[in-house]
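## tool: complex_structure
## caller: assistant
## args:
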Amino acid sequence: MEELRPALYLFPVGLSDVGLTEVLPQRNLDLLRGIRHFVVENLRSARRFLRAAHRDFPIDECQFTELNEHTPAGAVESMLAPLLKGQPIGVISEAGCPAVADPGADLVAAAQRRGLEVIPLVGPNSLLLGLMASGFNGQRFAFEGYLPIDEGERRKRLNEMTRRIDRERQTQIFIETPYRNNKLISELASLLPARMLLCVASDLTGPRQSVKTLPLERWRKEKYDYNKIPTIFLLYS
Amino acid sequence: MEELRPALYLFPVGLSDVGLTEVLPQRNLDLLRGIRHFVVENLRSARRFLRAAHRDFPIDECQFTELNEHTPAGAVESMLAPLLKGQPIGVISEAGCPAVADPGADLVAAAQRRGLEVIPLVGPNSLLLGLMASGFNGQRFAFEGYLPIDEGERRKRLNEMTRRIDRERQTQIFIETPYRNNKLISELASLLPARMLLCVASDLTGPRQSVKTLPLERWRKEKYDYNKIPTIFLLYS
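## result:
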């Protein structure tokens, strides 16, 4: 077992149900072996991840703490206790990269405030994969998370995004609750300029992966069904 | 040798001089074996990458085309010829992920216009790794590339970034020519609010990796030397 530097290690997890070596470097799996303290978004999926990484992982010798949207803000700081005693901590999200669109960011911020070392590890991130395959500007881009639900706010946000594409050549990236994916595409196609390009990047790294860039006027006529499939949306012109 | 789907495969490359399995999934290396047509940012470094991936890689049987800032825009389309005949193409950048802050985006856009399949693969990306380890908002963020050089334009951009942090809670990410890294930090520390947080993420995945988040008032007193080390800068408050 490798003796690890005491640090907060951020372990990405696969986005879909494929083998770990399809989407993670071997190095990540090797590092896991040296860690016994974990902060995890979901206990069950983190244990499954560890067992997939190493069939013989000594899960019963490990300490797990859950950090997710139910965790009170005041409880985060104390999760660093093992690291303050010199023991490495692993952070494991449910999918994708810890601390990007994920509650782990609070824990990282607390570690940074205390001057503790934070080590981010390589792994799959759907918005980066979507951006790579979109053909859009990768020199300037923004990730906006979810669009506002309120109709007026939503229009305002879409107008602002259109402005930033035109004036700043900034690719706009956002997500939607998966059961509303189809509705979002028809909404974008009806509200935004016909020639604007929409890229729909779906089931990234998964068996049904598809990344398609078309002008909105083509999306209007296109047949598609992204219902309930994790999908990233990108706009550019 | 695996028979590959005809597609444009985007292969990330390491950011620093570490072993490939430290930063790339085994899957990427396996896929390379099935490809004989490559579009590369730099011929020498692409060949080095292929040899590092597989000592016996049949480089002499491969066709390489360079795509970089010297390539005329009109030459990009024809690079897709092998794929139009049903043969997979691999895209290899000099460092990081193809098509993100890199000329590969034009080739991807051309493939998308023709309805060809594009397959992005997982690998290291410095801005994503920096964001993960910064502790900043990963739900909304923007990558701005380089700041403008003209002093007036530069101030205007910094003011706009400050506004977007305050009003939109949007993390601001940017880069600098590496020999000006130190100067940029003192510039930010003197121009921006004392309590704004600056994260400096340097030599990511490399032996001198360091990711440090501090308020600008602390950076003013801090000792640092990031001269000529590839570095990502992130602002938030």
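## assistant note: Chain A touches chain B through 57 residues (CB under 8 Å). The radius of gyration of chain A is 20 Å. Handing back to user.
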